[in-house]
Amino acid sequence: MNYSKEITEQLVKAYIDAPTRDTVRKLAEAHGKSEKSVIGKLSKEGVYIRSVYTTKTGEKPVTKSEIVVELAEKLEVEYSELVGLEKSPKQSLKVLLEAICED
DSSP readout, 29-91? Predict the structure, then answer.
């Protein structure tokens, strides 16, 4: 057994009190474990909160293909009719989607 019941309780309590990656780092150092090991244990205990990736602008990341699918829905055409559009610059696709949504 890698983690005793007491250590597991300490990890869970410390993480619940401050659910950050810094807490994970400190717990790993304190118990001589890797951060991945601590994250794995916290996940198994059902308390680990995975950090959500955001872009530099703070938005949820969206692929160009997802933007093209949304464009197809707004224009009421099949996605297959817009083949190749996902090769356009992402910012151009976003501008186009915004312009369509304004109507």
Answer: HHHT--HHHHHHHHHHTT---PPPP--TTSPPP--HHHHHHHHHHHHT--GGGGTTGGGS-HH
Contact 23, 15 (CB under 8 A): yes
* Most distant pair of Cα atoms in the chain: their distance: 62
pTM: 0.55
CA distance 88 to 92: 7
When the pLDDT of each residue in the chain is averaged and rounded to a whole number, the result is: 91
Instruction: Find the angle CA(52)-CA(94)-CA(81) to the nearest 5 degrees.
Output: 110
Helix axes 21-31, 5-17, angle to 10 degrees: 150
